Amino acid sequence: MARPEVLDRIKGAEDEADDIVAEAEAEREERIAEAREEADRIRENAREEAKALKEERLEEAHEEIDEEREEILAEGESERERLEAHAAENREKAVEYTVDLFTEAVNVQSQT
User: Long-range CB contacts (< 8 A, 24+ apart) of 88-92?
Assistant: First the structure.
């Protein structure tokens, strides 16, 4: 084999190696870009799931608060009704007591 032929074969092998390296480099860059896109999709999905979970938990908390509020209002209503009934009983007793005192006072004055 003549020297120019050998040099041409070496040059061809080097060119082929350069092409293989360039192709591998391009494939590597493409895979890196795909991996970055996939990572972005995963992060976005995680954000959306976290947001949905947060909204769900907030809704549950609002429902619990509303239920507790209703219970407190119902307890307050019951207590108000109990106090009104007790006040009505005391009012009747107070009126009776006042009438009795007045009657006694009238009786005492009429005896004198």
Answer: none
pTM of the model as a whole: 0.52
SS (H, E, C) the chain: CCHHHHHHHHHHHHHHHHHHHHHHHHHHHHHHHHHHHHHHHHHHHHHHHHHHHHHHHHHHHHHHHHHHHHHHHHHHHHHHHHHHHHHHHHHHHHHHHHHHHHHHHHHHHHHC
Each residue of 15-49: pLDDT tens digit? 999 999 999 999 999 999 999 999 999 999 999 99
